[in-house]
Structures are given as structure tokens and as C-alpha cells.
Amino acid sequence: MDHLRYSGLPFEAQREAFLAIVSADPLVGDALARARALALPDWLVVSGVLYNSVWNHLTGKPSGYGIKDVDLFYFDDGDLSYEAEDAVIRRAAKHFEGLQLPVEVRNQARVHLWYPRKFGQPCPRYSSASESISYFASKTHAVGVRYDAGGQLKLVAPFGLDDIFSFRITPNQVMDNQRTHETKGERARENWPEISVLLW
Nearest CA to 110 among 124, 91, 94, 90? Predict the structure, then answer.
């Protein structure tokens, strides 16, 4: 199986391939349909469930292999309290009952409030769910998908898709996230030995 068949192709060809693969994956398809019905403001299904599903497809592994959870971002700066986000998390837990994997829901308007306590460094105040993914520790992981108002799948990929299709985990040095980049890279290689992890 040629797992690198989309590597190096123009972005538009990679975008089409990426959206075709993730929308045909039963786990991703179910997560996206439920996320759309939940109708959170500025929502995005992001990161691992997407690029891991592409790697599974290209290496002949089953849907859901190596995936811990589904990350669902939204952006609502109308109420930055923990209680407001917690209410959404609890509503989402009911809404996603029965999905193959747990769903982790996070309001990206609040990240700057808790990030310094958890990670020991400041984090910018994001202005959208899409902006937040451009701060991920690895450029490869910065990918998100949602349905637009017309029911079309829209892709957010600030660094493109070639890293994903090249099975290459590339550091994103916009913040000091070396440990996260290395830890996630190591874990990915255990599941997909085809992967190369670029040094920080």
C-alpha cells in the first residue's frame, strides 16, 4: 500500500483527498454530524481524530485505531466563566453518548485563563477557534473541520496538509511546546511506524 500517495501534491488535491477520507470514516462522520447538531458557536472538530483517521486509511488500519478521543473546540467570549463552559461540557456529554470515543469540548475563548496555571507559560487570547489551532505544538496537528451553514465540509489548515500526507510531525515553535511535540510524536510512532518526527 502506497501510504505516501498524496505527499507533495498541490494543496487543492490534498484538501479534496483529506475531506473525502475523513468524511468517509465512520467515527469522524458520526462525530461531525453530532457536532453540527449540537450547534456550538464557531465550532471545529480538530486534531488527532482527523489526522489519525487519515493515517489509518492510508496504512490499512481500522477506523478509530490509535485515537484517544475527539477534540471539539468552540469559541464563545460572551461568558468566560468556568461554569458556562462546564454547562456546555455537560450538555455535550449527553449529546455524544454512544459515540465510539469520548469527546473533549473546550471553549477557546477561555484558554488564556487556565493555560498558564497548567503549563507554566502565558498563552495569547485567541479570537476564534481557528486561530487557536495555529498554536499547537506540532504544525502537523493544526487541522480542523466543520460544516458550514450550507452543509459543506470546511477545512482549517493553517500550515497546509503536506505534513499529514508525508507522515511527518513538524514542530511549531510559536510557543515553547517542545515536550508536547516530542511526547505526541513518540506516541504516534508507536501506532504508525511510518511516521518521522522532526527535531525541535
Answer: 124
Q: pLDDT tens for residues 41-53?
A: 999 999 999 999 9
Average pLDDT over residues 11-40: 97
Number of compact structural domains in the chain: 1
Q: Which domain holds residue 33?
A: 11-195
* Residue 125: how many other CB atoms lie within 10 Å: 14
Assigned domain for 132 exists: yes
Average pLDDT over residues 72-92: 97
The pTM (predicted TM-score) of the whole model is 0.95
Is there a domain that residue 125 lies in? yes
Q: Residue 118 falls within a domain, yes or no?
A: yes
pLDDT, tens digit, 9 for 90 and up, residues 151-173: 999 999 999 999 999 999 999 99
Whether 2 is covered by a domain: the verdict is no
